[in-house]
Each structure stands twice: as C-alpha cells, then as structure tokens.
Amino acid sequence: MYNFIQHFRDYLRLREAVNTADEHHAKDGDRYYVMPSLDGKLVIMDRKNFRLLKRKHYISQDVTLNQLRSECFYHTPYANGTDRMPAHIRKERAEKYYEWITTWRKAEKMRKKDAKRNKKGAKG
User: Fold this and answer.
1) Cα torsion 118, 120, 122, 124: sign
2) pLDDT by residue, tens only, the chain of 124 residues
C-alpha cells in the first residue's frame, strides 16, 4: 500500500543526505557517496572511510570503488567538478532508494512478527 506521508519522509531523508554530502564536498573537495546501511538509514562516506571500513572488515575485501559508485544513491563530483551525477540518473537512484527502503520496511516488519511469534511460543 502506498503511504504518501511515509514517501514524503523518505524523500526528505534522501534530500537531507544529499545536501549533507554536498556540504562536506564543498568543505574539503572529496567525493562523497550516499549509501544504505543495515539499519535502514543512509550513510555518507568518502573514499578514506570506505577504505577504513574495508581494512576493519566491515565491508568485504572484494568490493571496489566502482561497485560503491554503482550501488550508491548519490555521489558528489570529483574535486575538479567532473563526473557530476546527471539529473536522469539521480531520478533513477532516488527510485532505487524508495524501492530499497520499502523492501527494508517489509523485512523489518516480518522480523518483528517472527520475534513476537517466537516469544509467544516460548511462553506456552
């Protein structure tokens, strides 16, 4: 079922993450990526943090920056201004974000249902 208020909140959440990435980019010129996290939130990361997470094995060693770029919902341009994300790609990535958050919510709802069912089964 389509929930307008929830969709609007998702839109605001994505817009806030994009604006934050743009602000960080304006400060230091690094390239930033807006990525999904396991808890349903958006994470803003740069190359340095990506490599740190790989080194600590939070991210698989097989993941490359090109894969990060193709999976992110948004990325800032390089420091010299090249490779800016075109508007039509931004729309596609926004739709990808809406699909991802909807799927995440459904999975979270199922996890809660299962936990509740298991809790009831343990009592009886």
Assistant:
1) negative
2) 568 999 999 999 999 999 999 999 999 999 999 999 989 999 999 999 999 999 999 889 999 999 999 999 999 999 998 999 999 999 999 999 999 999 999 999 999 999 888 887 776 5
